[in-house]
Every structure is written in structure tokens, then in C-alpha cells.
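Q: Fold this one first, please.
A: Sequence and structure below.
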Amino acid sequence: MVNTDQTMEQLAQLKLHGMAQAYETTLTLPSHELPTAHELMAILTEAEINSRTHQRTQMYLKLSGLRYDAVLENIQCSPARNITRNEIIALADCAYIQRAENILITGATGCGKSYLACAFGRQACTLGHKVLYLGMNRFAEKLTLSKLDGSYIRLLNQIEKIPLVILDDFGLTPLESQTRIALLQLLEDRYGKRSTIITSQLPVSKWHQYINEPTLADAIMDRLSGSAHRFELKGESLRKKAK
């Protein structure tokens, strides 16, 4: 006779938590509803895959540092906001990450730029892509600290390998020379291999002027906008509406 308690313990030892939960549920079924051996194997396998996918997603979300717990389904789409549901759906499969395409999101304060970027980030985590969220001020701080402790190259190498990097609030404060050079190096390393999402209050047409160094600006804009999806959000502040 099968010792179900022992089986449960063995599944736990093997860290097959999805299988263990599904198996425990199966044990509560009346005899006439019990699955066949083949059906049980399919149920347990699917449960384990779903469990591991969920655990991976939770780990990626935690490591990403996303500013908002945003989901694409909650994005408000309307002509007034200059964004359509079809535009969201077109990027929801995250194929743009596989194609190493960028997303540029611009608009006034409070129009939902960061929320939209984080929603794309969460979707990427759900589909198995590692994500890193950094505000531009935080990015500059990391660069400064890494220069001091000698980890500058290692930091850029770490960021370069992440499939999707979100740089939030680009253009909010003046760019220091070190940040401009690091940004170009990072975009150069990621060009054609990884995707970057940038949000900014400044329209893309003013980014060149904001970077304020013609040669670097040309190079940065070339690597950013060559294969980019653009969202120019409009309308009233969503923060005001929430009050």
C-alpha cells in the first residue's frame, strides 16, 4: 500500500512544492473522481511548472526594484491620453525584448510615464525576463559610488547583461559628464542585444539639447531611437484625479 505521507515528505525534500500541493489536493478527491496514472502525472507536472514560474516571477519582481506594482491591464487608454489598447497589446508579448528594441515614454508630470514603464517591466518579469528599474538620480549615485570603490566596470557589466533596463525621469536634473559617458557606454554595450525603457518629461526632440554635448548626444540618440517604440502621453495629471 502506498504511504501517502512518505510521498509528501519526499516531494518536499526534492523541493517539488507544486507537485506536493497538487498531490495533496488529489488525495482529498472521492475515489470515483481520482485521475488515472497518466492524468495524475500530467496534473502534477503542470502544477510544478506553474509553481516554479510563479516563484521565478516573484524573484524577478523583487530584484527589479520596480517603483510601482503596475499591470498593463490597468493602463488607462484613450485618445485624450494619446495611447491605445492596441499599442499596449502589441508589446505585451515582450517580443521587443527579443528584438532588442527600446521604448521611449514622454509626457508631463503625473501623466503615468513611470507607471506605464513599470507595467512593461512587470510583464517582462512575468514572461521570464530579468528587469532592472533605476531612477536617473539613483543611476548617477550608483556610478559615483562605484567610482569610489573601484566597481565601476563591474557595475556597467552587470547592468549590460539585464534583458530590460528602465531608466526613469531622464532629463529631470542636469547630466554630469560622468553620467553622460556612462550612459553612452551602457547603451553602446546593449545596442542590438538588450532593451531599454526611458521615461522623460522632455519630448524626445529636446533630448539632444539636454545632453548638452553634441558628439555624445549624437551617439546616445542614435542608439536609443533607432529601433524604439514611442509613447507621447498627454492629458491631465492622473495624480490630481486620484485625490
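Q: Good. Now the second chain.
A: Here it is, same layout.
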Amino acid sequence: MRVLLVGINPGVKSSQCGHHFAGPSNRFWKLLYDSRLVPEPIGCEDDDRLHEWGFGITNLVPRPTPGIDTLRPEEYVAGAQVLRRKIRRVKPEVVAFIGVTLFRSVFGRRPGQPVALGLQEERLEGARVVVLPNPSGRNANFSYAEMLEAFVGLRRLLGKLKSAP
């Protein structure tokens, strides 16, 4: 596994159908293809194919909710502990946090503290850390072009890592 993609928690639609990023307004799968991280258009029902391209996918908190407002602080703490164990076990080169809020919670940043998209200085259990925008239709913080730029940045980073000795 080259990249472990980490979402904050499943939405209601994802929990109903058993697939990641399944909400009708979620742009995650389109961004994967448009950024050329995957070579063909895929949708949430293809999430079990991500390993074909070196990706794994998980959530920090397993409990589904309509939004993140009802997640409790202890769920974030417990989720971070489980995530660290997963990373130690699968040893990805990169951990990609899908959402600034998620990155802030894992690294103890206060809410509202600015976080740039892309490669971070921090590492997590030895893996490089990248922050991608949350592609949910509820997220109005980034335009599609800005989101795509961040996903392309991940593709470029993977290209550099692949060519590094």
C-alpha cells in the first residue's frame, strides 16, 4: 500500500450501502480520476478496487453520522489510536487525511487554526502526511479546481517518491 486514505467517519449513505464516500454530492471518486490517481472512472461501489492502484481506505471514527457535529472528543482520541496501529501494520508511504478538520484533530491543532493543503511537515508513524480537502458537497471551503489541485499534488508526490532512490 502506497497511500492510506483516511476519512473522518462514514456518512449516512455510506453506512447504508457499505461503501466509502457514497453521498450523491460527494466528489471524491471524480477527483481520484480527474487527478489521474486512478486510471479509469470509478465510483463508491468500486472502493474495494483501490488496492489495485496502491491505495487503502479507512475512517478515523467508525460511527456513521449525517455530519461531524455529533462526534464526541473521545471518539477522535480512540480513532487516532486505532489509526496509528493500522499505519504501523500496513506501513503506507503516505497517509492522506481527507479534510482539514480531520488533520487538526489527529495532530492536536485547535479548531480554526490554518492548515495548508498538501504535504505536511509532520509524519505519522513514519509515513508522510498529506492533507486533501473534504470532497463532500457540504464542504463549501474549496472550489472543485482547488480540490483537484490538491489531489494532483498527491499524484505528483507519489511520482517523486517512486523515482527517488
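Q: Anything worth noting on the second one?
A: The longest helix spans residues 144-163.
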